[in-house]
TrEMBL record, chain A:
Cofactor entry: Mg(2+)
Subcellular location: Membrane
Catalytic activities: ATP + H2O + phospholipidSide 1 = ADP + phosphate + phospholipidSide 2
Binding site for ATP: 14-16, 127, 133, 156-157
MF term (GO), any: ATP binding
Protein name (Swiss-Prot/TrEMBL): Phospholipid-transporting ATPase
Region (Disordered) location: 441-465, 481-504
Protein's GO biological process: Golgi organization; phospholipid translocation
Gene that specifies this protein: ATP8B4
Residue span, P-type ATPase C-terminal domain: 179-433
Enzyme class: translocase
UniProt keyword annotations, A-Z: ATP-binding, Magnesium, Membrane, Metal-binding, Nucleotide-binding, Translocase, Transmembrane, Transmembrane helix
E.C. designation(s): 7.6.2.1
Mode of membrane association: Multi-pass membrane protein
TrEMBL record, chain B:
Keyword Transmembrane: yes
UniProt name for this protein: Cell cycle control protein
Residues annotated as transmembrane: 33-54, 310-331
Species assigned in the record: Lates calcarifer
PANTHER family linked to this entry: CELL CYCLE CONTROL PROTEIN 50, CELL CYCLE CONTROL PROTEIN 50B
Keywords: Membrane, Transmembrane, Transmembrane helix
The keyword Lyase is annotated on this UniProt entry: no
Length: 522, 339
């Protein structure tokens, strides 16, 4: 249910019988009593299966054609558009058994099957062979723009796990084959929720931030040369020291972004689980698409423009305090390089939402290391050893001891960082996304203190269905619970006092509804 | 029971680091931080901008272009390439006392000292006094490493070859007579350049180190005779040479030539008429360059630079304006409390 809120479609592929699978479906809340229709496809021949599939589809589409706006008539939309499914308001379920599935997976029917399956909220395939599991997964992979995840625990799931985009194996009960063939493995099925909603989401979020920052940083670093080209006769003179160019991406700016990629969290794990719809940005590719890339690039270009032209304006007629000039190539290089490193560090600091000790260490450490290496490389000692490799001797000392240089660096940093800050603040205020709201909530909750959190419990909306699976045919349940085969009815009531009032309910329900299965809640 | 033991053996690490539970500071861009921050930055920048602008206004600068492009300019006769050792006089006047210490710069325009091929054309080993490179200059200096008789050029390369060689004498006209203003050329280059980066070969007399080499093609005097009045100012540690070798970043630049610090002019240049006597040797007209002379005094922020002051004022006011906008936006669209 939680995963359903996150817009994740769940299909069950099992080797069990139809009835068992349906009972499991009801007990997991995948099949519900209030669903409009549960289609059962159990034809034996190709034609029968085809007929059943078609009639089910028409049933769905026929009803929805009346209710929806009427834009569902195009037949060619069926092939790729997943938006089409959302116009279906009612809820349907599809149950198909292995025999029919074999027919339905034939090339002429597979599109029909896929369309029908995607129109339904839940799909349960029972009596499937391992090969068919893989085939179903492949069908979805090939024709839909969706990412597939297959989770299983036995050796019969291995082919399915291998076919899907992401394979998850449960290690334990049935041995390690599934776990060995999978991308992720853990011990219990319920951990899947955490894997997807917490770690999967964090992973996507971190990856997108990482990429965005990396492009921004490198554009800011490189495009300064583009602007400089206009003023150096397009001779490809580098603005920076050779050593700075070598070390920039390796030493000065790599560790902070690595720490962000490893530890950043926008929303903590409890809230990620509590609000599954936070998962949607990942599915809809919202955090890093062409537009975001373009924005990153633009920001990098703007930063490089400011990084060059502010020192340009300041350096064209500048001199040192003692009158000697220092509008030379090397001082210019050191000023721009220092501004760049500071701007990059401030930017990563603003983009990190979750400052662990490691983040602090890496960010401040990178800045310190930059200055340490700068002064070390431009010191007398290094020049003494390798004169022609360190031509920047003395520049850092002469340049960074001038107040005007620090004023230039301060101005450049503020001008590069402040627009981004203002834009993100305004965006959060004017168009808050769900993530922003949850983060705000998180922060106010933290401020209120932990004792108040216990009062806000998530209300469980699922109807309490059983933990037992019963056969569809009228079995022994009635017999057992009527107490006829017990020695004394008082003994049974003493053992489980809660059971007796419910048992009368159960019998009544059983008598009322013959086709459905009702179970006692324990 | 057995299953549980096996499970705990396979259990992954449960430390705070591996389970992403590290304690952390989670800052949020809340209005309470951002808006006052912007106001603070804005006000601080306006303050700095005002200080810079006022200081810059107080600096005096006098620029005289003496290239001699127009027919009626005093140095026009010297622009003829065939005239050697041309001297021209440029007259100017100062209205108020030019506060001392006064710094005398020469400036060049449209001169791309930052051109890459030009910039790599020097030999660092030669310039740090390594005699082996006197005999065999490195190939980075080409085509200025050997002359047509195949003798090594010291110092090689086009940066050294193109050294600025105009010289200036400044006179004040007092009662019709020329009174020379003494110009001080000590310490105009960086201390690190003079003492560490550039070293003369440790041969005395210096002239002997240059046996078997020739001076750069454009120079009129060899390196060991650059300053006949001061023996410590010859060779590669000549102050003018060092100032020239520190390549400028932009195509219009100034380099320090001399200081006016002693004698009668220690307090500055008094108001009056002056004559600048220029030994015009450096040709710039062929590439559309211009030469000029700049007199300036300095302050704690360096020379006259209105850009920084104005930039700070502009950015400061924009920050304050942005903070007002953000305050309005925040007040109108208060953050929703519940999801």
């Amino acid at each position: 249910a939680c995963l359903g809120l996150a817009d994740i479609k769940i299909w069950v592929l099992t080797g069990d019988k139809l009835e068992t699978a349906m009972n499991i479906g009801y007990s997991c809340n995948m099949l519900r009593d209030d669903m409009n229709e549960v289609f059962v496809i159990s034809g034996h021949t190709l034609l029968e299966v085809q007929q059943q599939l078609r009639s089910a589809k028409e049933h769905i589409l026929g009803l929805s054609r009346v209710s929806s706006a009427g834009d569902v008539e195009k037949t060619d939309m069926f092939a790729e558009d997943s938006v089409f499914e959302e116009t279906i308001i009612a809820e349907y379920a599809l149950v198909i058994n292995g025999h029919s599935l074999a027919h339905a997976l034939e090339p002429q029917l597979e599109h029909t099957l896929l369309d029908l399956a995607c129109l339904c909220k839940t799909v349960i395939c029972c009596r499937v062979t391992p090969m068919q599991k893989a085939q179903v997964v492949e069908l979805v992979k090939r024709h839909k723009r969706a990412v597939t995840l297959a989770i299983g625990d036995g050796a019969n799931d291995v082919s399915m796990i291998k076919t899907a985009h992401i394979g998850v194996g449960i290690s334990g009960q049935e041995g390690m084959q599934a776990a060995l063939a999978s991308d992720y493995s853990f011990a219990q099925f319920r951990y899947l929720q955490r894997l997807l909603l917490v770690h999967g989401r964090w992973s996507y979020f971190r990856m997108c931030n990482f990429l965005c920052y990396f492009f921004y940083k490198n554009f800011a670093f490189t495009l300064v040369h583009f602007w400089y080209g206009f003023f150096c006769g397009f001779s490809a003179q580098t603005v920076y020291d050779q050593w700075f160019i070598t070390l920039f991406n390796i030493v000065y700016t790599s560790l902070p972004v690595l720490a962000m990629g490893l530890f950043d969290q926008d929303v903590n794990d409890q809230n990620s689980l509590r609000y599954p719809s936070l998962y949607k940005p990942g599915q809809q590719n919202l955090l890093f698409n062409k537009r975001q890339f373009f924005m990153c690039t633009l920001q990098g270009m703007g930063t490089s423009f400011l990084l060059f032209f502010i020192p340009y304006g300041a350096f064209s007629v500048t001199v040192k305090e003692d009158g000697s000039n220092f509008s030379d190539q090397q001082a210019f290089a050191v000023t721009i390089a220092t501004s760049l490193v500071i701007v990059a560090s401030v930017q990563i600091g603003l983009e990190t939402h979750y400052w662990t000790a490691v983040n602090h260490l890496f960010i401040w450490g990178s800045l310190t290391v930059y200055f340490a290496i700068l002064f070390a490389m431009q010191s007398n000692g290094m020049f003494g050893i390798f004169p022609s490799n360190f031509p920047f001797i003395g520049t850092a000392r002469n340049c960074l001891s001038e107040k005007s240089v620090w004023l230039v660096i301060l101005l450049t940093t503020v001008v590069c960082v402040v627009p981004g800050l203002a834009v993100s603040f305004l965006r959060v205020d004017l168009f808050p996304t769900l993530t922003d709201k949850v983060r705000h909530l998180q922060q106010t909750t933290k401020r209120q203190g932990p004792q108040e959190q216990n009062l806000r419990r998530v209300r469980r909306t699922s109807s309490r269905r059983s933990a037992y699976a019963f056969s569809h045919q009228q079995g022994y349940g009635e017999l057992i619970t009527s107490g006829k085969n017990m020695r004394t009815s008082t003994v049974s009531s003493a053992r489980s006092p809660q059971r007796t009032p419910h048992s009368s309910n159960w019998i009544e329900n059983m008598l009322k509804r013959k086709n459905e299965v009702s179970c006692i809640s324990v | 029971m057995v299953k549980q033991e096996k499970a705990s053996a396979n259990r992954p690490d449960n430390t705070a680091f591996t389970q992403q539970r590290l304690p952390a500071w989670q800052p949020m861009l809340s209005a309470g931080i951002v808006i006052p921050g912007f106001v603070l930055i804005g006000l601080a920048f306006i303050g700095i901008g005002v200080a810079l602008f006022v200081t810059s206004r107080g600096i005096q600068v006098l620029e005289i272009d003496y290239t001699g492009v127009e027919q009626n300019s005093p140095c026009f006769p010297c622009t003829d390439q065939n005239r050697k050792n041309c001297v021209c006089d440029v007259n100017f006047s100062i209205d108020t006392l030019f506060q001392g210490p006064v710094f005398f710069y020469y400036g060049l325009s449209n001169y791309f000292q930052n051109y890459r091929k030009y910039g790599v054309s020097k030999d660092d080993y030669q310039l740090s006094g390594d005699l082996s490179y006197f005999k065999a200059p490195s190939s980075t200096c080409s085509p200025y490493e050997y002359d047509k008789n195949n003798k090594p050029i010291v110092p090689c390369g086009s940066v050294a070859n193109s050294m600025f060689n105009d010289t200036f004498k400044l006179f004040q006209i007092v009662n019709g007579a020329k009174k020379q203003v003494s110009l001080d050329g000590k310490g105009i280059a960086w201390w690190t350049d003079y003492n560490i980066k550039y070293r003369n070969p440790s041969v005395t007399p210096l002239k002997n180190a240059f046996n078997g080499t020739v001076k750069p093609l454009f120079w009129s005097k060899p390196a060991y005779e650059l300053d006949l009045s001061d023996p410590a100012n010859n060779g590669f540690i000549n102050q003018d040479f060092l100032v020239w070798m520190r390549r400028a970043a932009l195509p219009n630049f100034r380099k320090l030539y001399r200081r006016i610090t002693d004698g009668d002019y220690a307090q500055g240049l008094p108001a009056g008429n002056y004559t600048l006597e220029v030994s015009y040797n450096y040709p710039v007209l062929s590439f559309g360059g211009r030469k000029k002379v700049v007199f300036s005094n300095v302050s704690w922020m360096g020379g006259k630079n209105e850009f920084l002051g104005i930039a700070y004022l502009v950015i400061g006011s924009m920050c304050v304006f942005m903070s007002i906008v953000m305050l309005i936006v925040y007040a109108k669209f208060k953050f929703p409390e519940e999801d």
